[in-house]
Structures are given as C-alpha cells and as structure tokens.
Prior knowledge:
By secondary structure, the protein is mostly helical. The chain has helices at residues 4-34, 49-65, 70-88, 114-145, 149-173, 175-202, 212-239, 249-271; strands at residues 93-94, 110-111.
Amino acid sequence: MSTSLQRTYRNLRVGIAGTVALIGISVGVTAANVGILPSISAYYYTPARNVFVGALVAAAIAIIALSGRGIQRALLDAAGLFAPLVAVVPTPIRAGTVPGYENACGSAASCVPADAVADVDAGVATYLIAGAVTVVVALVGTLVAGGGAFSRSVSSLAVAGAVLLFVAVSWLFFRDVFVATAHLLSAVAFFGLIAVVAVANAFDRSPTTMPRQWRTAVYWIIAVAMAVDIVVLVAVVVSGTTGSGAFPPVLVGEAIALLLFAAFWVVQSVEKWGDDDPSII
C-alpha cells in the first residue's frame, strides 16, 4: 500500500511533467487566435501569459521540494531559482512578430516593450524579497535543527545566495542589459542544470525498478539531446534567425527542451514510483 509520502512525491514528479502540458495547451489554444509566433516565450505577450508564468513558478516550487541530497540538491535548487526568472522576465521581441506590438520597439531591431518593463520590475522585486526571506528561514531552520543539517544544506544555501545576489546587482545597476538578456540566460541555466542532473542519474548505481542499462541510456539521451538543443537554440537566437511559418526554429527548439524536461520527470516518476524518499540519487 502506498504511503502519504509516496503519494506526495509521486504527485510532485508527475505534476512537474504536467506543467509542460499546461504550457503546451495554453500556447495551442492561444495560437488558434493569434497565430504561430516566433517562440513559445513570445506567448508571454498574449493571453497565454498567466498559464505560462504560473506553470513555471509551480514547477520551480516542486523542483525545490524534490531536490534531494548532495550535489544534485544544489543543482536542482539552482534550477528552481532560475525557472521563475524565465517566467517573470519576458523574451525580447522583434517588430511585427507579435500581434498588438507591431510598433513597440520603435527603431530598435528587438526589445522588451516598455509596457512590460513595469511588470518585470514588480516580478523581480518580489522574486528577490521572497528568495531572501526563504534563504534566511532555511538558514535559521538548519541551525536550529542541528545534527549536521547545516553542513548538508550549505551548498544549496550558498548557490541560492549567489544567484540572488547576481540577479539583484544585475537588475539594480545594469537594468537594460538585465531586461534584454535575463530570459535567455535563465532558460539556458535552467535547462542546462536539468541536463547535468540527468548525467548524474546516468551514473547512479543504486537499485532501481528499471533495468540499469535502459536507465543509463535514457538519462544519457535526455542529457545529450538537451545540451545539443540548448547550443542550437542559443546560436539561432544570437544570429537573429527567428524564422516564420508553421515551424519557427526557436519555437521548435523550446518545444524540444520542454519535452525533454517533461521526459526526465516522467522517467523519475516511473523509476521512483514506490519510493518515499525524494532524493535524486
């Protein structure tokens, strides 16, 4: 019989994969009205925004809840910190690519429209305040708990502090650069960290419900495919080749990254279905 902890962690793992389905459904529904945009991220500027942001924030919370122990804990905690930034800082758009924003960039080739910057400021400020409070509460909790809790948490706390400090400095003192680049850099960091965690799982030798060879192969496929997809996506974005038609390259690349992310958590769900321990390895 399943325990409460088993059901909780099952639901969290399945729920993380489910956030990808939510994003896909909202983009599909919205695309029926506004058409195919150059990227999934560009749907931030459409009615799909609420689901897009909410799904990424929900995924971030669940990832942190499942972060486990050791280096994987630090990696997944960091991934959970980058996901909300992908949500609250939108991607720059090119003139004429998003309905309603045809003239938003003026003479600039691309921009984050001025009417979205106030939302970015509110979102980042909330992110930094909530993140700082969370780190302080976690630090106090580990010190009070004793028994080595601090030593087990120090890597995650250090990573969280470093990410929050970097975001704060970038946002306060390099606002224009932050607004223009934070979405892409956060997405690269987020998916890159998931790829590294997949590699760590490929090397795991603990007992599993899946045949070890199959397990190793699946995680390596996810990790390598994710890494290649990230490199291609960055190259396409930097080159400015947004494309058009039914299959814009950035939209396809983002869809592949999300599907691989979902695949990782589906495999985790299958592998750890009867486990009440959220540790990754």
